[in-house]
Structure to design on (243 residues):
C-alpha cells in the first residue's frame, strides 16, 4: 500500500525566518563569500598603505567593516525584511499531500488552486529540526515537522517517504539549531487594516471631483445570449409585435 501523508503548512514569520537563515548560511554559504571579500579588502588595504595611497586604504577599511557588520548581523537583517513583509501581508496557509508519487499543494483559502509536482521534479532535499525543504532547483517547498500540523498520517510516515526519496537525490541534514533568538511575531489586525484602507479609498472617491469630459462608456460583453435570457432580459420590441 502506498504511503500518504497530509499536513498543513503556514508560511508565516517562523517559516520564512528558518528558510531564509538556512538558505543563506547553509545552502548558499554566503559567509564564505563575505569572508573572501573581507580578506581581499584587508589585503588591498595593506597594499595601499605600503604604496602610501591612504585614501584607497580608508575606503577598503570602511568596506571591510561594513562586510563584517553584515556578516555578524545577518539574522537581524532578515528579521527586518520579514517583519516589514508581514506588517502588510497575511501568512499563507496551504495543505500539502505527499505520497510515493506526487506532492500535491492546495490553497486553504481557495481549494480550487491545486499544484501537483512529481518527485522527479525535486532536485534536492534539505532537513533541519523544524522543517524539510524540498527544492525544485531554487524554488522551495516547506514541510513542517510539527506533529500538530499533521492532518492525515504521522510524522514517522512523512520521514519514511522523505528518506526513501532522499536516497536518490542530494540530501543534507543540519541537526543543530540554526537560529539564535526569538522566532515569534506579533501580527497586526489585518481585517482592521483592510477596513481602514477601504474607508480611506471611499473617502478619496467621494471627495474627488469627477472629470466627465474624460469619462468613457463602459462596454459589457455578452458571451452567451442564453444566459442573458435566463437572467430576465426582455425580448426585443420587434418580436413582441410579430407575436
Amino acid at each position: 500500500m502506498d504511503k500518504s501523508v497530509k499536513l498543513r503548512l503556514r508560511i508565516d514569520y517562523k517559516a520564512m525566518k528558518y528558510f531564509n537563515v538556512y538558505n543563506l548560511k547553509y545552502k548558499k554559504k554566503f559567509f564564505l563569500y563575505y569572508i573572501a571579500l573581507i580578506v581581499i579588502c584587508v589585503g588591498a588595504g595593506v597594499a595601499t598603505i605600503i604604496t602610501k595611497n591612504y585614501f584607497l586604504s580608508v575606503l577598503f577599511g570602511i568596506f571591510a567593516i561594513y562586510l563584517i557588520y553584515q556578516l555578524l548581523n545577518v539574522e537581524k537583517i532578515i528579521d527586518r525584511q520579514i517583519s516589514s513583509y508581514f506588517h502588510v501581508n497575511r501568512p499563507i496557509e496551504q495543505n500539502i499531500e505527499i505520497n510515493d508519487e506526487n506532492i500535491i499543494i492546495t490553497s486553504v483559502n481557495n481549494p480550487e488552486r491545486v499544484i501537483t509536482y512529481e518527485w522527479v521534479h525535486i532536485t534536492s532535499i534539505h532537513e533541519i529540526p523544524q522543517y524539510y525543504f524540498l527544492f525544485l532547483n531554487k524554488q522551495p517547498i516547506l514541510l513542517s515537522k510539527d506533529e500538530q500540523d499533521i492532518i492525515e498520517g504521522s510524522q514517522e510516515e512523512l520521514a519514511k517517504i522523505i528518506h526513501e526519496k532522499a536516497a536518490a537525490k542530494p540530501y543534507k541534514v543540519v541537526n543543530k539549531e540554526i537560529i539564535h533568538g526569538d522566532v515569534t511575531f506579533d501580527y497586526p489586525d489585518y481585517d482592521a487594516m483592510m477596513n481602514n484602507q477601504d474607508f480611506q479609498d471611499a473617502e478619496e472617491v467621494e471627495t474627488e471631483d469627477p472629470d466627465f469630459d474624460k469619462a468613457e462608456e463602459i462596454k459589457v460583453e455578452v458571451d452567451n445570449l442564453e444566459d442573458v435570457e435566463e437572467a430576465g432580459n426582455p425580448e426585443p420590441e420587434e418580436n413582441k409585435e410579430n407575436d
